[in-house]
Amino acid sequence: MTDTAHATEHRHGALAFRTVRPDDPAAAPMLADLEREYDARYGDHFGEPASTEINRYPVEHFTAPLGTFVLLYEDDRLVAGGAFKPYDDDTIELKRIWTAPEARGRGLAGVVVEELEAEAGRRGFGRVYLTTGPRQPEAVRLYTRLGYTPLYDVTKSSEEVGIHPFEKTIRTDGAEPTRASSPTDRPVIPLRHPLRWIAAAVVLVLLANLVETLFTNPSWEWPRVGKWLFSPAILTGLQLTLVATALSAVISFAGGIVVAIARLSRNPVLSSLAWGYVWLFRSVPLILVLVFLYNLGNLYPTIGIGVPFGPHVEVPTANVLGDLAIGVIGLSLSEIAYASEIVRAGVLAVDHGQHEAAQALGLPRHRQFLRIVLPQAMRSIVPAFVNQIVGLLKASSLLFYVSLLDLFGVVQNLSSTYPTDIIPLLVVATLWYLALTSAVSVVQYHVERWTSRGSVRTLPPTPLQRVRAAWRRIRTGGSAPVRSSAPAGRLVTSDNNDGRVIS
Fold it and tell me: Which of 257, 412, 477, 490 has a 20 to 30 Å separation from 455 between CA atoms?
């Protein structure tokens, strides 16, 4: 290919290639559209704007004799383009493959790639190398169709792989490369991690010793564990633990939203009171709050409500605050302080432009918060709060100190009655807490996936999907890939097999 235009026939009409410099005004629309599309697809995914990638290489890399930059015209209308630069003595690297938005779906990107390959062959290069990113599935299909070999693990999802490298041999004369150490000829030597294997071996040995003691030490008394595991007393305590945790979680979440709103309020009184509440209950241990509420009757024998300096309605404190009420109130008061900080952090994480857009609509402040800001903040709030429930579940074991027979309280009482069964009873409590926290963790995992659907293009495979994929690979001899739970892509903006690539 020379600097003069040459024409070729295409089923969509006469096409003409023109070789230009990257800084030629004729290439400006192509580069501007590449930059716009790159930003739309990736944003700050790579930690830099598209203009940095577009201007990364000197102009000389894309001009003869080093490289080339071509534009494809149809009836004097720019419809596609691309370039290559030298990668090593025998290899070129394709860059800037592009198709105009109105010309996509016609295979023009493939025409550009084939022309660049032909020019590279005329210059004596034998291989083509390129990279594409995780959000351009059209590019992957294009290069696969054109005979390129992927240099990455195709069993992984696009987001897991990240940058997708490809290569293709274009030498047809059987000549040897001018450089024996061409990147695609170099032997692939796996990176070795001896310290990882040593550490894994040490951990496995320790784990094997632990498992051995669990089954060979008669002091564990596993038959007694089985006897107590589903006993009525244990199940009653378990039920009370679940009720106290559930009530406290609901109250603390609702209360956390109220306190967070007050903390973010422009009203200095509300903001100060909310700050003081958070400061107080984050500073005082939960056990102290529970014991204080348990002895509240000594400070206030009766609880009343009425008009200051007027008539009051009073009832004995003991009639209002039962053991369960004390436990739930104590847990909730302490947890609200932490939940409010989770809510406040979620609200502050919402882009400020969303607040400005809500104000531009003329919505009242409370509707701005409830209809626009809070729903978006839930993406950050809900997973963090579900994680907080795990701590709340374990904290419920302190209810024993206010005479509430939850799971731990029942185990304590039974240990006093059956002192020879202390170890089996403690194992029973451990197993039930493990089961409960594991169930909450499963819920947290799926909540995080649900709330992240709008923030990432590709969700990683679930454990069940990984197991199914492993089973498919076993059945098919290792050819079945792990499927992600959402489609992934990379920067190719076209239909069918036509596309453009920024790399």
Answer: 257
